[in-house]
Amino acid sequence: MTVLERLAELGLSLPDVPTPVANYLPGKRVGDLLYLSGQGPRNEQGGYHLGKVGSDVSVEQAYEHARLAGLALLAAAQSLVPDLDRLEAVKLLGMVNAFPEFGQHPQVINGCSDLFVQVLGERGRHARSAVGMGSLPNNMTVEIEAIFKIHD
Amino acid sequence: MTVLERLAELGLSLPDVPTPVANYLPGKRVGDLLYLSGQGPRNEQGGYHLGKVGSDVSVEQAYEHARLAGLALLAAAQSLVPDLDRLEAVKLLGMVNAFPEFGQHPQVINGCSDLFVQVLGERGRHARSAVGMGSLPNNMTVEIEAIFKIHD
Amino acid sequence: MTVLERLAELGLSLPDVPTPVANYLPGKRVGDLLYLSGQGPRNEQGGYHLGKVGSDVSVEQAYEHARLAGLALLAAAQSLVPDLDRLEAVKLLGMVNAFPEFGQHPQVINGCSDLFVQVLGERGRHARSAVGMGSLPNNMTVEIEAIFKIHD
Q: What is the pTM of this model?
């Protein structure tokens, strides 16, 4: 089954990749590595899910937001490497906009990690850190950046 | 026009690279990748611009600080790869020392992204994340780390 | 002297590598690069050292915690590359769970940097950033992620 078939089976489709509004790119390829810019969780109105995780937003909600950020990362990857079956996840930095006493960052970022394994299979397993930021752009709940390997 | 000529045209020169005061390096090369240590915005007295962005320091001031951090990154790169025309920006992690409700991290880190495109041209475009830290060394306003590709 | 001999001379041994409890890995190798997941400072009871650095925990204590995180990184590396003498440290992201006015992140992360140079020699020197997070998993004091180069 291809990555697109697995996404369809899960009822998921890839969002549009927003054009960066400044001098940076959704991602950059160097050799067989693809460095992706941080992505946040877009909502159905085209904005982002906002708030501090652990106070404004529950762990369960934030898990879904990490999954949305993961979909945005796959969409950004596809804009650079159209055939998603060539991708292997290498490393995530999962950043949670949490209140200072929050401690369940791994449970939040699992939303992205689980998605990658669901759609990429064994190639979806990766190294990662799941940590708490002091703040995030527009007060987004989560932002995740990723490195993928591109197979021939 | 070379990178040094573009810097001169902008009225900019590269600062000295401070010697790390501990067991780390300004940067490390592996193959054709150059990993640079995080750099902050030095002021004319040799210290750093300090304060929380969004409360002590404005977005406009912090944009200039991100530009100074970008100059420090180019200086660190030059200490390892003397010919700056061989460099291509790959990835930035732009870290803003912001108050918890701050949301304009991209506008701050643009100071570094804009500089890289001004002096490196198309090779200056990069993937990046622009995020908010809980604190930074000495209460610096911004710190940016970077990965460059080294061309032959 | 081998890396294991240097560790023994320092009276240190590598801890067990905890099995990740989710869809991620302790580390992932791509070519000659090894990306390691973030590691925290485990205590003798199998839990983690907890608290905010600069208020609950002193710089000196946190230095020791960064050293413990460094040992956990070496253990994770060994689980993927059994011969530690093939490893060269490339890049650290040293994350301190600090209170917002804290400024001595470099002095904390030196605990890991010093360890790497003590046991890996010149190959232990690396690029790094040492920064302050808003929060960390379970309220751990520090978390450090690393990239190593694997020599033949």
A: 0.97
